Amino acid sequence: MDFTDVSLTALRVLRAVAEQGTFTSAAASLGYTQSAVSRQIAAIERAAGAELLERRREGVRLTAAGRVVMRRATIVLDEIEATARELSGLPGQAGTVRLGWFPTAGAFLLPRALAALRRSHPGLRVVSREGTTPALVRALRAGSLDLALLASAPPFRAPDTESPPLVLRTLTERALCLAVPAAHPLARGDFVDVADLRGQRWIAGPSSGEDRLMGVWPGLDERPDIVHTVRDWLAKLQLVAAGCGLTTVPAALAAAAPPGVRVLPVRGGPQEQRRVLLARLPQPPTEPVTLVASALRAAALDADTPAPPARPS
Fold first, then answer.
1. 170 strand-pairing partners
2. Homologous superfamily, domain 93-172+274-303
3. pTM, rounded to two decimals
4. CA-CA distance, 92 to 309, in Å (whole number)?
5. Is 120 helix (H, G, I), strand (E, B) or coil?
6. What is the gyration radius of the CA atoms in the chain, in angstroms?
7. Domain residues of the chain, as ranges?
8. Where are the alpha helices (DSSP H) in the chain?
9. What sign for the dihedral angle of Cα 124, 130, 135, 137?
10. β-pair partners for 276
11. pLDDT value of position 162
């Protein structure tokens, strides 16, 4: 076992593969060819004298040896990046927190927390990025993020089965709601009966290997008529406002709904609960990470006060 000749490039490639979950995605994120990524991984595995990645049909994940190497590699890469920032006159790593968030958290939770932090700790630097919950979990494991806001649906299982378990805190738990065009017959009351969802047209997010179908009411007892497939939640709501169909949204998004949209609870069936989780690795958090986590918890408490549904004008 000899790590003296392992390059920083190989460490960065290992981190990218661990974060992206596949050699192909890692190559795309780094601007490398897949064969170049494979060569770097082979080189670092030779140096380690062990397999660092478990190859599976759906992708790869770190082995026990890989987690050890990744933990140390993250320290090395963070120090190199901190040195580069210091040399260029930018704030040091000690005042920087890397935060990941699932898409709709950027509409209600993230802006409130960042605004509060700017007032209370103007020197604290938060670098954030959007991603799916599975991608954010991989980024936490790879050491690319310090904190992540994750979405969770019943039966509320842990976001992954890796060891050690992530430290999870539930920030909010609210019922899933329905976004309805203000001129739609379903918008006349203060709630929608689940039986009235049959035969409706839906605006849904694209379904992929790591994302479930989003936008259609869960447990709908018919094949949904999906008329628009949209990833961006704001585009979904604008299509709802244009009368193009219905979509599901977290209750907290009611305040961000554009004119022409009513966000209503659904009654008559099992409650569809959704949680927002704050996740991190189990090592003791730094002071900046603790400050950001506290701001997110405070913003979640504020956002968890439901507002009455707006009446159509």
1. 277
2. Periplasmic binding protein-like II (3.40.190.10)
3. 0.73
4. 45
5. helix
6. 22
7. 8-87, 93-172+274-303, 174-272
8. 8-20, 23-30, 34-48, 64-87, 105-120, 133-142, 233-241, 287-303
9. positive
10. 151, 172
11. 86
Residue tagged 């060891």 (tokens): 163
**Any bridge partners for residue 96, and if so which?**
125
Q: How far apart are CA 214 and CA 137, in angstroms?
A: 19
To which residue do tokens 């580069």 refer?
84
Tell me the per-residue pLDDT of 193-238, one tens digit each, with 9 for 90 and over: 999 999 999 999 886 544 455 889 987 888 999 999 998 888 999 9
Between CA 276 and CA 102 the distance in angstroms is 9
Domain 8-87: state its class.
mainly alpha
Domain pair 8-87 / 93-172+274-303, same fold: no
SS3 (DSSP) at 145: coil
39-48, 238-247, 284-293: which is most confident = 238-247
Residue 191: pLDDT band with limits 50, 70, 90: very high
CATH architecture of 174-272: 3-Layer(aba) Sandwich (3.40)
Instruction: Answer yes or no: is pLDDT of 93 > 70.
Output: no
C-alpha–C-alpha distance, residues 145 and 62, integer Å:
16
Whether the per-residue pLDDT at 261 is higher than 90: the answer is yes
Rounded-to-integer distance, Cα 289 and Cα 139, Å: 16
Say which residue, 102 or 81, is predicted with more confidence.
102
Rounded to whole angstroms, the Cα distance separating 18 from 69 reads: 11
8 A C-beta contact, residue 165 and residue 282:
yes
Mean pLDDT (whole number) for 253-280: 90
